[in-house]
């Protein structure tokens, strides 16, 4: 797992790259716009229900002000990662161009249809696994820290997989006999990367950078492993 800190350091070091900044701006903008839309929908929906039963419509704003931040905290990592999936190819290409030019020449950019399908599958996995974790978190609620550890562990596994696959999908059929192969990054490294990114997503402002940093670091882990396995460069 010693490769994970190095991958994260390189990812942070490339934050000033214009290609990375463009993806960062787009992913943050779309993610925040989605939550703004959620907030507006919750407010107007509550206002209609509250007024229908004869209560003061101002309560809708109070309830929305409580619910939306909670929803953002619970759903941010899921929504942000799903949004990033649409632009993942740009992040991976930027890392390849700067650090792995030989491997960049072998990469196969993903068509939009496959990016969309990957995003939907990732979103479905994230929602499904987090829903399955709810009963376990509920059982451990009396421990205070138990639920947080459950969700951190679940999302570390999910994020580690998604972030490594973003890069691997560009290379999985471009080596050997052309058949798709299993991601070469060790499970321990994927889990460690996922845990770091999941932790970042719990910190205000750092959570905005976390998906892009994770995608870039995941790319380093994949391409470093390909260099070791195939002696590229």
TrEMBL record:
Q: Which InterPro entries match?
A: CysZ/EI24
Topology of this chain in the membrane: Multi-pass membrane protein
Q: What is its main location?
A: membrane
List keywords of the entry alphabetically.
Membrane, Transmembrane, Transmembrane helix
Q: Does the record carry Iron-sulfur as a key word?
A: no
Cellular location(s): Membrane
Segments spanning the bilayer are 28-50, 62-88, 132-160, 191-217
Name recorded for this polypeptide:
Uncharacterized protein involved in cysteine biosynthesis
Q: Which organism is it from?
A: Erythrobacter sanguineus
């Amino acid at each position: 797992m010693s490769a994970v800190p190095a991958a994260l350091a390189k990812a942070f070091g490339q934050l000033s790259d214009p290609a990375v900044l463009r993806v960062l701006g787009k992913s943050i903008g779309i993610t925040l716009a989605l939550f703004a839309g959620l907030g507006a929908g919750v407010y107007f929906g509550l206002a209609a229900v509250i007024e229908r039963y004869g209560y003061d419509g101002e309560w809708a704003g109070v309830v929305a002000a409580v619910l939306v931040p909670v929803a953002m905290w619970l759903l941010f990592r899921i929504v942000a990662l799903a949004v990033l999936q649409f632009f993942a190819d740009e992040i991976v290409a930027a890392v390849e161009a700067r650090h792995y030019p030989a491997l960049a020449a072998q990469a196969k950019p993903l068509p939009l249809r496959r990016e969309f399908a990957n995003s939907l599958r990732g979103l479905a996995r994230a929602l499904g696994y987090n829903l399955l974790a709810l009963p376990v978190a509920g059982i451990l609620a009396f421990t205070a820290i138990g639920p947080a550890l459950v969700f951190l562990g679940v999302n570390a596994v999910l994020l580690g997989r998604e972030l490594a696959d973003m890069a691997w999908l560009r290379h999985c059929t471009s080596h050997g006999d052309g058949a798709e192969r299993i991601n070469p990054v060790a499970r321990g490294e994927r889990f460690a990367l996922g845990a770091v990114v999941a932790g970042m997503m719990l910190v205000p402002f750092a959570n905005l950078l976390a998906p892009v940093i994770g995608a870039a670091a995941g790319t380093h882990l994949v391409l470093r492993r390909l260099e070791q396995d195939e002696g590229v460069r």
